[in-house]
Amino acid sequence: MAKEEIKEPCKKQACDIQACLTKNNFNSQRCQRVIELLESCCEKCEYKSTHCASVSGLLKQIKKNTKEQKPQV
How many whole angstroms separate alpha carbon 69 and alpha carbon 37? Predict the structure, then answer.
């Protein structure tokens, strides 16, 4: 394992999210899987990576968008 991976264990997942968001016009719902991978990484490293700060905001945004898209009964 490279030294950088030890210092910043979730850097790859954070970069993957940025790439996905850029590719998908910043539609976080289309990047849900990579966001969940970052969340998993953050859980494993006990949120000790600087890249973990944004994961909760991204997950909240996905949940909010999902609720807005459900048809009213």
Answer: 24
Would you say the C-alpha torsion 73, 24, 41, 43 has a positive or negative sign?
A: negative
1 within domain boundaries: no
Residue 14 lies in a domain: yes
47, burial (CB in 10 Å: exposed 0-12, middle 13-18, buried 19+)? middle
Domain span including residue 33:
10-64
In this predicted model, what pLDDT tens digit does every residue of 52-70 receive, in sequence order?
987 777 777 777 777 777 6
Q: What single DSSP character describes residue 2?
A: -
Total of domains in the chain: 1
69 in any annotated domain: no
How far is Cα 32 from Cα 63, in angstroms, rounded to an integer?
10
